[in-house]
Amino acid sequence: MTPLRTLRHSVARVLRTHYPAFLFGIPGSAPSCSVFCYHEVDPNLFAGDLRFLAENGYRTLGVHEFVETASRGGDPRAVLLTFDDAKRNFWDVTFPLLKQFGARVTLFVPTAWMENGDRDPEPECEAPANMFMTWDQVRVCADSGLVDVQAHGHRHALVHTSNCLVGFATPEQVRRSPIYDWPMRSEKGRNRQGIPPLGTPIYDAEPLLSARARILEDETAARTCRELVREGGGQAFFDRPGPLAQLRRAHNDAARRSSRVRRIEGPEFESLVRAEFERSSELLRRHVGRAPEFFAYPWMMGSDLSLRCAADAGIKAVFGVGLDFTRAQRLAGPLVGYGRLKGDWLRFLPGRGRRRLREVVPGKLARFLGSEHLAH
To answer: Which domains does the chain have, with CATH numbers?
Structure first.
């Protein structure tokens, strides 16, 4: 992604993000009921968040209680803490702290990524060992009474939405990019997710649940690029002069010869979207004993199609992120929607020891503007 495109993307996110009044310390600005979103946490920082809540008389709600409380106008001394992705960090760090403080949270699980002993020898979603929780660990959390387990989609996927080439899988990109930032790719007619082989082309992409269609990339061009890197020594290929220019030439030559890009839309694309809800419901019912009623969207609240699919799958309420507060308030139909604030903002709630913006804004702004999604 070019620096200009990265800057435009980051500025657009800043302008669309909801910043509640309590962040600025405005008197009387206590929220009716705040929702915070975490992923992986530092033990000292998260323990500090839980201690802040306890010392200031805040209650941590289960998700059912939150929805009921919010429907009655909220409670300024209640919060919903949510965790996305079910990474192993939740089991190793978060869950012990929940037991220590007696706090409740909601865990949104991307079901295709959970580890278990009977996985396909060629799984669709491949992750390094111990990156995600096992189903046994998810079940222990669900049975504890402290963790509501709900859905975060099945694949948590990005899909290519054009054949506009934005980069390649290089050692540097592999090092810097989170596993979810790699779009779902087609290899030998199968969907694959995870860190791709070096040299794999990356095209414009959007979250599956926000996109209108999916572009199936030219497998011949992708295979040509991967073979070029493999025959050039793998990682050593990128130590030579001009590796990206070589890859781009090889890609364009192969694409001109084969031209096998296909657009998936209409009923075929809808089936892909519906599977995100149906498969996650099926697996949560099988492994946890109950189907989900709540759904947290990866990246941002999804398309109207995905909202219809969520309702059809029995979902009662959906959660977005800071970008989604306005849209969540305007949802029509059977679903209720909620935006979520990053957990970084929790200690800006009213109370003793609350933080001040001047302490954190410079660092947060630098990280925000410096963040770079690979293809979206």
So the answer is: 3-155+269-370 (3.20.20.370), 158-207+218-260 (no CATH)
